[in-house]
Every structure is written in C-alpha cells, then in structure tokens.
Amino acid sequence: MLPDRPALSPERKHLQAGEALFRQDQPVRAVYPLRHGGIKRMYESALGWRQLTGFMLPGDVAGLEPNDAPQFGTSAIALQASECCVVPLETAKRCEEDPAVHAALLALLHRDALRQRELLVTIGSMKAAQRLAMLLLDQAAEHRRRGTDGGEVMLAMTRNDIASYLGLTLETVSRLLSRFASVGLITVRHRQLRIVDEKGLSDVHAEADRITLRGPDPA
Amino acid sequence: MLPDRPALSPERKHLQAGEALFRQDQPVRAVYPLRHGGIKRMYESALGWRQLTGFMLPGDVAGLEPNDAPQFGTSAIALQASECCVVPLETAKRCEEDPAVHAALLALLHRDALRQRELLVTIGSMKAAQRLAMLLLDQAAEHRRRGTDGGEVMLAMTRNDIASYLGLTLETVSRLLSRFASVGLITVRHRQLRIVDEKGLSDVHAEADRITLRGPDPA
DNA sequence: CGTTAACTTGAAAGAAATCAAATCTGGTGG
DNA sequence: CCACCAGATTTGATTTCTTTCAAGTTAACG
C-alpha cells in the first residue's frame, strides 16, 4: 500500500560545482549528510563582506545549526560535483529521540563550535604561514580520520577559497604553498597536494617566523 | 523549617577586576546573569594563543553554552568589580520548562552565534580602522539597548583587550583612537569615550580607506 | 607620594596587499 | 582530435598597512 516512499533509500540531492545546497537566512527545513564531494560554508555580513567558515567532507552533516536555529547561519556551496542525503527536519527530530543519535549530533555541534573558536584565534593572531599550516594539518587530519588516501590530498577548493577562509589574499596563499614546497614541507601541483613533512608543518604552525614569504637572505 | 535557602534572593557572586568567574574547560555547573560590572570572554588555544571573543554587560548571561556543552568554551574574566547571580544548572533547566524562558535563552544563543560570525568576518577581511569602528558602534548600540547613558561610554576594557578582540596590537588601537578623535568622530580620554559622529563611524566601518593611520598627505 | 600598569607617540622594519604579467588547465566547439 | 578560451594559478615589483621597538606621559592604587 505504501506509495513510492523510499523507506531505506531516503531522498538524495545532487549538486554541481558552485551550486548552493542552501543559502544563509533560509529557513531550516532539513539537514544534509554529505555522501560524496565537498562543500564550503560561507558567511556574508549585512554589508556584503564574505568569509568562508569551513569546508565539509563526506560524513559531515551540512545544515546542522546550533540550538535549533530557525534559519541557516551560512550558505553551503558545492566545491565539486557532490551528493548528499536530505533528511527533513521532522525526521531528524525523530531520530534524535535515540539518545545515541542525539549525543552524536551534539558532539558534531560541539566540535564545530570548537573549530570556529580555533579559526578565530588563528585569523586573529597568527601570521600567514602559520594559518596555512594550520589548514593543511587540519585537512590532513580530517582525511586521515576518514581513512581517505594516505598523504595525497586532492584539494577541492580554489586558492581564493583558502584565502577567504584564512583571511588572506589568493596571491599570498599561492606564494606560501610554493614556499612550503620549496623547503620540502609539501609537494603541490595545483589541487594535488601531499604533505611530506608533517612534523615540520606543525613547527611552522607553532613557532612564528620559521617560514616567511621571502626566502633566506643570501647576503 | 526551610534552612537558610534564599528563595527569592538567589546566590550572588562578587568579582574583583581580573578575577575569573569561570575558566575554559571547567564543567558547566551554573549560569551567571551579570548584574553589575563587565566581563570579557577569552579563548585560549591548545598552543597558548589567546583571543578575546566578546564583552558582556549587565543583563547578559555568562556561562550560557550552545547545545548544552558540558564544559565552558571560554573563560570569563571580570574587567572591573562585578556582581552576578549564580543559577545552578538544575535550576536553569527547570526554568527552561517555561516556553518563554526557553525562547529567550535560545534568542541569546542565536545572537551570540551571529556575533561570532560577524567578528570572524571583521577580523578576517577588514582593515584596522574598520574593525575598531565596528567595535565602537557595537558598544554604543549595546549601551543604548540598555538605556545606559547617552553617548558617553565608560570603556571597561584596556587597549590591550580591544586589540586582542580585534586581532590588532595595542599601539594600533591607541593610534586609531587618537586618529578618530582628531577627525572629530569621537572624543576619548583614556577609558572615557564619547561618540560624536556615529554616521561618520558607520562610513568608516563600511568604506575602506576613509581613515588610515597616517593623516592626510600635506603634499 | 611613589610605584606600577596603562596609555600615547614616534621611527623603523616587516608582512601582506595590490598591481601587473605570464602560464597553466580543463572543457568546448569546430 | 585539436585549437581556443575563461578561469585558476604562479610569480615579480611595488605600495601600504601594521607591527615592532623605544621612549615618554599619564593615571590608578596602596
């Protein structure tokens, strides 16, 4: 008797690169566990200033807003062809009755809040090289946590996206990537990135002035 | 028969300037509506980087954490002699059963999240003068919302606090305040501040390059 | 009244942004 | 299949902004 309601295969949504999954200030009607691809979160202030606030990978849940916010706090935009589930808010609420699910969602929200604070302190007080090192280490850790490839990371975002996330310009990001590569911390060819010396990157992240834009003075 | 349980006058806590109401990572056992004084919120990353994430005024509720986080995400430190109520978590939970209270608390949390995003975009993409203008306008709005004095604001925080909040150095903040004063946007004498030209400050906040550290070129 | 912390101001150095070309890439249409 | 194009990326030169370093000055507090 059940009509075509896909009981075990909930609704999916496919996105092209650049397409918005949802936009800031729209009412929250569903949450979107990401299956394939990658998504960036973008905040736009009333005056038009934009800032990327995070990148999401498969396994992350897009649209999860803290404290049941009625509207999305950021836009979610696909970095590449992507696919996600669509879990209507009502369904999500029902799932939350399971304490284990509830706890898991809270854990996601807490981690997100922590990340937000880390991003703030990073942008607020670290030099460009340290900020970039932080992002690279973070990306590597995320990929590792998912078991995706070992070391070789395909960046889904552009230099501009990275710059917006870190509060820098795309030129600075490009230069720093080249610089990191030239001192053997990474190898990078456009979007293909490999972390060669993770310990070294950690050092850059921790200690200021280890890597700057200009190379060692030959004088 | 009731022992000395202050039914109508809940427990109060007094703080001296510089004293911590609670510290980051401590378990949340109570929330603290601020009655008098002022408090700064400070986040410290694992590597020791610090960042002020906000200032609280009487009427704000310190210790309110998003999504029932079990530990405080930031430390709360008194900027001056202050006094706050102490509402044990259990009591707070009971209050929350009142839908109106619940909604009010959610509203506070949502506003806080919005502020966090605004701070991020401000630090991430604005010039120093714009950042400071934002803070001053924000402070003025907060004071106005509370009906506190008209225009004349007593800043509770040091230049260093402002700098940490905005991702600048104290010298830059000091210079900019002087500069704002010299072009007639504000008057400032140490902590005593008055906004003379709010529209002008808005313009500085919106349009880049209206005010820079060096004055007009006399050439 | 003196000591200390906060604040202001100047000069110099340094970091990142801006301006300006090249170069590379993936995808498109011929 | 290949030439071409728009967007992405790299790299260099220059400019601008902010920090850093260094004194002074002022204000708060015991």
TrEMBL record, chains A, B:
It comes from the Bacteria. The keyword DNA-binding applies. PROSITE patterns: HTH_CRP_1, HTH_CRP_2. Keywords: DNA-binding, Plasmid, Transcription, Transcription regulation. Residues 126-199 form the HTH crp-type domain. GO terms for molecular function: DNA binding; DNA-binding transcription factor activity. Transmembrane segments: none annotated. Pfam families: cNMP_binding (PF00027), HTH_Crp_2 (PF13545). InterPro entries: cNMP-bd_dom, cNMP-bd_dom_sf, Env_Response_Regulators, HTH_CRP, RmlC-like_jellyroll, Tscrpt_reg_HTH_Crp-type_CS, WH-like_DNA-bd_sf, WH_DNA-bd_sf. GO terms for cellular component: cytosol. This is Transcriptional regulator, Crp/Fnr family. It comes from Cupriavidus metallidurans (strain ATCC 43123 / DSM 2839 / NBRC 102507 / CH34) (Ralstonia metallidurans).
